[in-house]
Amino acid sequence: MDQFDTAKIDSTAAPQWAIGMRRITNYLSQDFLGGPRPWKAAWVINFQKAGTFGFMALLMWVYHNDSPAAWVYLALHGSYGLVWILKDLAFPDPNWQKRVTLFGGINSFLFVLGWYWVFGWLLISGVARPVYPLPEFAWFALCISLCVVGCVVMVAADAQKFFTLRLRRGLITDGLHRYIRHPNYLGEMLIYSSFAMMTWHWIPVVVLAWVWLGVFAVNMVLKEASMSRYPEWAAYKKRSWWLVPFVF
User: Fold this and answer.
1) Rounded CA separation 96/87 (Å)
2) Pairwise CA distance, residues 104 & 30, whole Å
3) How far apart are CA 26 and CA 30, in angstroms?
4) What would the pLDDT profile of 19-28 be if each residue is shown by its tens digit?
5) Closest to 28 in 3D by CA, of 103, 115, 117, 116
6) pLDDT digits (tens, 9 = 90+) for 74-88
7) Strands 39-40, 99-100: parallel, antiparallel or unpaired by DSSP?
8) How far apart are CA 111 and CA 167, in angstroms?
9) Residue 5 confidence (pLDDT)
10) How far apart are CA 37 and CA 207, in angstroms?
11) pTM for the model
């Protein structure tokens, strides 16, 4: 349940580039090559999220890496995956309940979700040899803080959206949405920023830039086009921020 309703996007309000990008990503992740739709998008996502803790632990065993950085990364990325599963059990996102084609699901895993596992592999395998800008203990504390805050923001925003829209339709303009219009995306960006900072390698930067610009930014632009149909939208937009209060 979302404020974002693709069926109600005003084509005059939504930029054509965003609509075009959405059509491409929908085809690649949901409809690629057509045919039977054996699984839900949620199953593909949850497989990657739930498997992260075990996959990172396996990497530590394979590469005999029991460094503090490896353990911190395991705790951060692995625990985030478990948080996601708990969130999905408590208030599943209807957007992920759509059934996707066999190759659409494979595309989603290989070209988006699977790349997130590469972050941990880079660090744990030793391919990435990070030299952090701060002493390790301070850098680890910063990454842990970003991940924890990000998880809280993401879960709180999704919970507010889910339970509010069960009671009434329309704009959500209070709680976490009072000051920023896309708190769930902010939470996700904080979380994955912490993983990229732990790895401290150029590949996570490229992956996040691709996901944030090609998926997140497009979703936010289209979501705003959808919400613009409400009479109170103009006033809400004027008094709120896109992602970060007083910044952007």
Assistant:
1) 13
2) 5
3) 5
4) 999 999 999 9
5) 103
6) 999 999 999 999 999
7) antiparallel
8) 37
9) 42
10) 27
11) 0.92
Q: Among 78-82, 87-91, 169-173, 208-212, name the one with the lowest average pLDDT.
A: 169-173
| Identity of the residue numbered 161 | K
Please report the beta strands in 39-115, taking only residues with DSSP state E, as ranges in sequence order: 39-40, 99-100
CA distances from 61 to 54, 86, 104, 192, 211 (A): 10, 26, 32, 24, 30
Evaluate whether 198 touches 75 at the Cβ level (below 8 Å): no
In angstroms, the CA 59 to CA 85 distance is 22
Q: Is the pLDDT of residue 7 over 90?
A: no
Position 12 scores a pLDDT of 54
Q: Are 123 and 198 in contact (CB under 8 A)?
A: yes
Distance of CA 228 to the CA centre of its chain: 23
What's residue 169's pLDDT?
A: 87
Instruction: Report phi then psi at 113, rounded to 5.
Output: -65, -40
- Residue 231 CB: number of other CB atoms within 10 A? 8
Residue 206 pairs in a beta bridge with: none
Pair 194, 144: CB distance under 8 Å: yes
* 174: enclosing H helix or E strand: none
CB 49 within 8 A of CB 85: yes
Give Cβ neighbours of residue 58 (< 8 Å, ≥ 6 apart).
none
pLDDT score, position 10: 52
pLDDT score for 3: 41
Query: How large is the greatest C-alpha to C-alpha distance in the chain, in angstroms?
Result: 59
Q: What distance in Å separates the CA atoms of residue 141 and residue 126, rounded to the nearest whole number?
A: 21
Percent of the chain predicted with pLDDT > 70: 95
